[in-house]
Amino acid sequence: xxxxxxxxxxxxxxxxxxxxxxxxxxxxxxxxxxxxxxxxxxxxxxxxxxxxxxxxxxxxxxxxxxxxxxxxxxxxxxxxxxxxxxxxxxxxxxxxxxxxxxxxxxxxxxxxxxxxxxxxxxxxxxxxxxxxxxxxxxxxxxxxxxxxxxxxxxxxxxxxxxxxxxxxxxxxxxxxxxxxxxxxxxxxxxxxxxxxxxxxxxxxxxxxxxxxxxxxxxxxxxxxxxxxxxxxxxxxxxxxxxxxxxxxxxxxxxxxxxxxxxxxxxxxxxxxxxxxxxxxxxxxxxxxxxxxxxxxxxxxxxxxxxxxxxxxx
Length: 313
Fold this sequence. Notes:
Ribosomal_protein_S1; 14 strands; alpha+beta; NA-bd_OB-fold; S1_domain; 7 helices; CATH 2.40.50.140; five-stranded mixed beta barrel; nucleic acid binding; five-stranded antiparallel sheet
């Protein structure tokens, strides 16, 4: 719309929208173009001798401003940044680098972690066992609430821009830091985590007093005796001593054993039967005997012992 920057007459102004007189300044009123003003004046709505279309200065006003495209620019900038952050997330996933992000909050399934302009998801099962072992009396949601606002070290395990999925793992980040401190034959004090039909997961306690890594004790490595149900022996929260018998660093897996901290009962029995020098008792004269009682070995027992001594273990 346009306005006139002069006055018509002394105090008389024209309202082009209603074609009526007003006491307002003409600079606050509008008209479409000089022809309309001239036609209105021809209808004697304003003093003819006091107005000239050539003398009137027409300037743009802000009655109907042109829309500012700053919001569109901000949207484009936000999209560009988001795309760059997704690219960075994929780079972190491929390189395996550890990222330190701030915990924004949590939901029913895990923590919400800030990644530059994005927010990723850290499932509860992917958290380090140190949190639950440190405060075993608290529920996982109470622990998550206490962690909100803190910084956490994680690895990106999924970055899908199309599906808007950004998933983290704290366990993988902790493995990078502490797995080098674990070797086969090491003995740890651990705390029993979840117990399954096939075995029990044991959280390993490190010298700093925290439980950083988790290993698996297969049901066959729990005891030398035959076990019908592992829950008859191990329950969640129990503290046990375990021995590291295998480490798969590519798959981030630690295999543990409880029974190998004890002597094999079968070997103990054989040691009582077989002398320490490894010779087999086959002659009745070498055994304690008397005129009335003579103990003789079972037929073929000597050959069986000889074969057993040649077997590994």
